[in-house]
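Re: that chain you flagged

S.,

Sorry for the slow reply, it's been a week of failed gels. I finally had a moment to sit down with the sequence you sent. For the record, here it is as I used it:
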Amino acid sequence: MEYKRLVIEIGQGVDMHGGDQNNAILKATKDAIHHCCIAGLSEIFEISKRKGVKLVADVYVPDPDNADPSVVSDYMGAMYDDITVNMHVGGADPEGIALDGGPKTPITIALVVITVWVMA
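Prediction finished late last night. Pasting the structure tokens below so you have them in one place:
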């Protein structure tokens, strides 16, 4: 038996004020994982405790060298044991707006692609 892909889900997270990539990553991770109900893990593959399941998260942010991949693994670790996080250049950082006459605040957009692998 070998690992095969069961689910690919994409999430988007935005930090509207402050340009916090890690906040955007966490929002994108939650967005992706909350879009799917993986009933097949228990109903088809009879996996009850998430053993034999691997998650791969591909994270796309404007400056991956200054982002923390553990944001994804810490959040997902409560549900899955085998998690790999790959950081990539991507996402977006458009110019924000000025609030109350202050400087423009940065906007940061992150994308997270979560792939669920199972033994089949």
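What I noticed first: The radius of gyration is 16 Å.

Talk soon,
D.
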